[in-house]
Fold these 3 entries.
Entry 1:
Amino acid sequence: MRSLFWRILGAFWLALGLMGALTYLLVRLFNQDDWILNHHPGLKDFATTWLSLHESGATEPALYYLHQQKRRYRIETQIFDANGLPLGKELSSRALAWEAKRDLQRLPWRRITQELSDSAGNSYLFVYRIANTELGAWQRNNGLRPLSALVIALLILSAMSLLLTLSITRPLQRLRNAVHDLGANTYQHDQLSQLAKRRDELGVLAADFNHMGQRLQGVIKSQRQLLRDVSHELRSPLARLQIALALAERGTAEQRADLWPRLHLECERLDGLIDEILTLARLDQVQAAQQLIHIDELLHKLRDDMNLLMPEQQIRILGAQHCTYNGWPDVLQRALDNLLRNALRFNPPAQPIEIKVEPHASGLSLTIRDHGPGVSSEWLSQLGNTFFRVPGQTQQGYGLGLAIAKRAIEQHGGYIAFSNHTEGGFVVTVELPYIG
């Protein structure tokens, strides 16, 4: 993963490296002979001016112009013709005297040459010697080195800062928009899919936020659906209670005595329905830490509980020895309890219910088979939906048992499949992946 920390640190050091390299190259450019000849006030027009004076025969003005250059800019100049001979004995002697006087031979100096031709085609070589201290002072006084370094630094740092800022602020703006959409309940599941592909902290944050947004949207949707279903399911027992109460108010003492068991039964049904609804709602809450579950102990405990309620029923457990699973014990127990109760509701006492456990590399498979009438194939896909009951079944229920089991298994990252057995009966297959 390309860490954002290393990206920022790398951008910082890259900016420093580029700034140093370009500053060095620019300073080297400012120190090139051609650049100095074209910009130094004592050199840029000296050769052409002196050559024009020399061609016109003005020897004294040419010497004076040469000496002016020495006194004003401290530049020692020697001029040679095409044969390599210095121009004039007086000029060379004066040059040597001035050099001895200024003691330039003991100073670090910079040598610059320039070749120029006059109108007649004669070539002349100008050899300039300027002390490094003088050259450095001129560059500093004109602000060339500091100004160039400052300009380069500002340009590079501005460019790198702009790129780095955009690489951070744009994803943050998209996250901000996603938060706003989530608050307005208009969040789309693929809103941050592109951002989640980044291989840095922002990409991980976008992926986590996308997962959170999808889960919240699913929870909100399921809660709304649950509220609609609950309001519908609660109307029936409440309506029966209201009718029974109205009859009790109008009836005689004997009639009221006959209605009390009916009222008590409706209250129990209402209480059981509310308990199932609360259980379904709690499954959406964050669970505690996972624990090691011994599947054989859990199934044997459920079998013992069922034997107390229905001693005539038989439950056969296969393949659960030494089988363990990491999960939430209460949630998994409630899911298997509901599945087993559903099987016992339709299974004939003469044949046992079979619970088969098959561990495999990626998780755990459990199948619960009864020998009841099964379910019509047209209703299999709707099993597990809240408040769904198969039409035509006379068994009592609220349509929440399988929904609770399905939600509990999904809480573990697994799924439930419903099918009819080829030899008769109903089969529930539970797939539980290893989740650590």
Entry 2:
Amino acid sequence: MRGNTTITITTINGSKSYTIDEMIKGVIGYLALAIGAIFVLGALAIYFLLGEMDNYQALKNQHKHLLLTNSDLEIAIREKQGQLLEISDKVTDIEAMIGMPPQELPSVSARLDLARISASERMLMLRSIPSGMPTEFRGFSSPFGWRNHPLRRQREFHTGLDFRGPIGTPIYATADGVVELVRPNRTVGFGNLITLSHSYGFKTLYAHLDRMIVNQGQFVQKGQLIGYLGNTGYSTGPHLHYEVRYLNRPLDPKNFVEWDLENYESIFEKEKKVQWDSVIKGIKWQWTLLEQLSSQREQRSLESLTSSVNSTSMAR
């Protein structure tokens, strides 16, 4: 029949003929073309994705290289800081040997009457400058100062204090301040890292964290939860690496961890690299300003209340 296609199938049992309409034949042809097009497009997509995977791998390798470079820079900076501190100590020893008088600052007591610092000013100072524990105390795993690095097996200056603890232990800000840096990094260097900027030139650093729950630029209060202890970066086990810096110079955090109202004056003799007389003057000025602002608010409130009472009396 015209317009039809006959297909004959022959088996051992005989032959059978089937007729397919030309329309069906066209549909089958289009389907074949569509399947072919899908196959070609799929092949092109696979080729494109393979290229993208190569680019991704290259970017990943570049990122890893940058992380390693950044970690090496961190290590180099800490080593140079340690060398500078060591040179400074050697210069002091040489000066003592040749009879030169030491260049240490006189005690705070000689420059400022500590008895004149009020309890409120002391409380303000302990909130503004790092003090107390950044985490629940379970012992120290590494002190501040020179040591043999547990991974690199070489002598270097440890610029912080390492707190032992299980992963997930809460970490708290040790003073009011602003979150200066939140750096996620689970593989090299300090790992997940937070730095806080405090008043009067102080900073604190919290490294090897498991999780961080603050954002850069955020204001935090003393005792506020900022993250959780972890084992990220170059670390031999779960711990918190904690640093206290003054004008970017690392100080022994242990002096600040032990500092509270009961031994308020001890910090001034333990940590002589800080211009405490200037800091205390700043604290007194800040407290005076707060008192003045509070007095002005009370005066305005009193005037407003008096005006309200007088208005009520006149209305009667």
Entry 3:
Amino acid sequence: MRFFSDLNHFMMLGARAHAKWELQMSNNILRSRPRKIILCLLLIPIILGGIAIAGDPAGSLPDVLGGKKAYSPAFYTPAIFIVSILVGIAAGLITGCIGAGGGFIIAPALMSVGVKGILAVGTDLFHIFAKAIMGSILHKKLGNICVPLAITFLIGAIGGATAGGLLNRYLYELNPVLSDAFITTIYVFMLGFLGFYALADYIKTKRGLDSQETQGPVEVEGEAIPPMGKKIQAINIPPMVKFDEGITPGGRKVSWVFLVLSGALVGMAAGVMGVGGGFLTFPIFVYGLGVSSMTTVGTDIFQIIFTAGYASLTQYAIYGFIFYTLAMGMLLGSLFGIQIGSLVTKVVPGITIRGFYAMAVLSGFVNRAFALPEKLRSMEMINWSPTTTYVLEQIGIYAFFIVIGIFCFWVFKAFFTNISVLKGEVPAS
């Protein structure tokens, strides 16, 4: 039990590190006039293209998004663009307000409105990459990165992302429903794992039994090495990669084999799920390899940029599995959502935010779990009636969007109610 508790705790730390990075990228874009101009130029062809075909009576969108011909167009209707902005806003609000990556809701949200799983994954990856490119490739706070550690890790990450992309494309060509079922199953386990831990943590904190944010072997960042990390570092398979010289006298060493394997796992998760993979980097590095938290943050941000860029371009974009209208809409929405969300944290109790995070993640879990029976029935793996699986799927969709909608309404209400406090006109009570 202690292992799973530590693992989930480190996954939360990874999600929070990714959220801080997203906020930094958003600030870089919105506070730079040249970058805002570039953003507007990128949006012009999408908007014009959508207007040009808005009156198309063919109604081929369901075939493009939901059938086996799900090779994406560069643009589509203004309605789809607006929906993508709303999805981006919701993800941005979660990221900024909760301080944990909101990307977990993007793929479930897109799949719930009919977008094939592989298209949702590729689009989400490209959205992350576009934000990283516009926000600047290497942020000034990457000073904690250990270059040999990062490069060795990226060797595995590139290989893992390639394998993830190949697997997704193979399953999709074999059977689009099988592809959706596979991606849905991955999300069920991941969101369930994170969601129930977050809920338990919220209940525990609410009862006053856990007043500290940290637990386990990370009480002193960068100093204590967890037991598993000590065992891994004791295995001498040359060449050994040295790191944390500025934190521990003489530094620490780990075999390149474990770094490559770790990178492969993170890259595989990014390639299959369409996320940055940072939620896995933290538990693997800190708990498994004994890397300090400071070095882990730098390496995490570094790998997100290159892993998302490589996977989105080479595994999805060139095969037509990126819906650029959705990607740019989500980018635009998340830029503003994350700003509002980060401001709300100044006027809302942290315990409330943690409760909303647990509910948001669990709503994504319910959404994907209730969608799975219909996909299994379509592949004739279960004998449930079409009515039963349809009703379950609709319950999951409505529950998901209702919870996310309530969260967004609550954040905007908190923002506008306390706008005078946020402006500094009235001192906070």
